[in-house]
Amino acid sequence: MNAPLSDIIVLDLTRALAGPICSRLLSDLGARVIKIEPPDGDLTRSLVPRVDGQSPYFVQYNAGKECVSIDLATKGGRDLFLEMVTRADMVLENYRPKVMSRLGLTYEVLSKVNPRVILGSISGWGHGNSRSNQGAFASAIHAEAGLTEMVARRREEQPRNDPMSHSDTCTGLHALGAVLAALYMRERTGKGQAVEISMAESTLMVNDLAAIEMTGEDPMVGFKGGQNWSPVLQLGNGRYVNVTLDITTADGFKILCRVSKINGLSSDARFAAIEDRVQNRDQLTAIFAQYATQFDSAEELEADIGVSAVLASEVKSVPELAATNWAEERGAFVNVDTGRGKVVKVPQSPWRFSDTTAGVKPTIAYRGENNRTTLQQLLGLTNDAIDSLEADGVLSSRPPSWHESAS
After folding, report:
1. 264, 294, 314 — which closes off a domain?
2. Which residue, of 184, 212, 259, 322, is most buried by count of CB atoms within 10 Å of its CB?
3. Domain of 339?
4. Where are the alpha helices (DSSP H) in 339-395?
């Protein structure tokens, strides 16, 4: 059974994170994704740790792609890429906005050789504005788009960086939606188009508190948006549990009074009104924390509270979740073969279709691994022609040491 995008060819110029997430998901949906990698390689290949020479960070978002390594700075590399564009449905790039122009690969150039091609461009601040040429890493966008400040303020701590690259990952998902919409529109019009996506706007879009922040108000009482009111407590066995209960609200306080069984708590002047409970949240949380120590599992705690809207979830690591029955039943992780039997376990894509197949292809290519096979299949190039491109420095590759010794 064909996957949803099994007839689509994507040329992927992206590196690092935001772009490769988009292209991996296109691959998971069945597209043939050809990663066009420069001679210096995708910088995420060098990240540690390594499994059989491969970086798991790189593997997670580049699994299932073919890899052709082309030096686009050469005339031969540009010409070869444009020939590939004639066979492609989509080109993805995440350079700064002027780079494609310097390479001679603007949308106008691409559409001349293929009017149906779609160009998806990802950048920090979008094209055609005063900040377009600024670089962008996730932590920089987090800082400028209000995320770092807001988290610090709501946690009542000094600003610090999050270990996860939320701006990159969210931008990749928004890029996926945009290029799929462009593909759908092409079916109606017969023409491709250029689509550009900014990391800054993607970060604002997924900030569920952005509109509240824009009011300039931060009410101390009432049912507030966000999740920082949800306490993390320690169980009797030393594990931690997240409980979706705001104990300062009227209903939350009633539940705490009932389950804690502390005489006089409901009439304690410190907690008489919601304003008092907010003022004394730490003392109230300490009571909740003492109650939680009676239990050795999240399931026991949740059952004792006995309210369907209140969930108790044990704080787990990613490997701990991967070891659960749910992960096995869902197929939530996939083993990607590094090339000689060792594997990197990566998250599966989240969708399941009722009438087709989709999901990560469990292979990973070294830089330039598919130079020969891809160019033979896509363009019909002969071995002699490919040898000539390699001799001219247009094509290159970097097999792992074990691969070289095996051959």
Report:
1. 314
2. 259
3. 9-208+323-406
4. 371-379, 383-391
The CB density around residue 184, as the number of other CB atoms within 10 Å, is: 9
Burial status of residue 203 (CB atoms within 10 A of its CB: 0-12, 13-18, 19 or more)? buried
Burial of 60 (0-12, 13-18, 19+ CB in 10 A): buried
Domain end point (choices 272, 288, 314): 314
What mean pLDDT do residues 69-84 have? 98
How far from the centroid of its chain's Cα atoms is residue 75's Cα? 34
Residue 340 has pLDDT above 90, yes or no: no
Instruction: Verify that 308 and 336 share a domain, yes or no.
Output: no
- Could you tell me the two tokens for 197? 């996506």
- Report, as an integer, the average pLDDT of 279-304: 97
Distance linking the first and last C-alpha atoms of the chain: 35
Give me the sheet containing 118-123, strands edge to edge.
66-69, 32-37, 9-12, 90-93, 118-123, 194-198
**CB-based contacts of 210, cutoff 8 Å, min separation 6:** 146, 204
Q: What is the pLDDT of residue 405?
A: 54
The structure tokens listed for 104 are: 């001679």
Which pLDDT band, with edges at 50, 70 and 90, does 349 fall under?
A: very high
Encode pLDDT of 237-259 as tens digits: 999 999 999 999 999 999 999 99
d(CA 31, CA 89): 10
Per-residue pLDDT tens over the stretch 8-38: 999 999 999 999 999 999 999 999 999 999 9
Q: Quote the pTM value.
A: 0.95
Over residues 386-395, the pLDDT tens digits come to 999 999 999 9
Report if residue 367 sits inside a domain: yes
pLDDT surpasses 60 at 219: yes
* Angstrom distance (rounded) from CA 58 to CA 56: 5
CA distances from 305 to 130, 233, 253, 265, 301 (A): 54, 14, 12, 17, 6
Could you tell me if 256 and 113 lie in one domain? Answer: no
| 296: three-class secondary structure by DSSP | coil
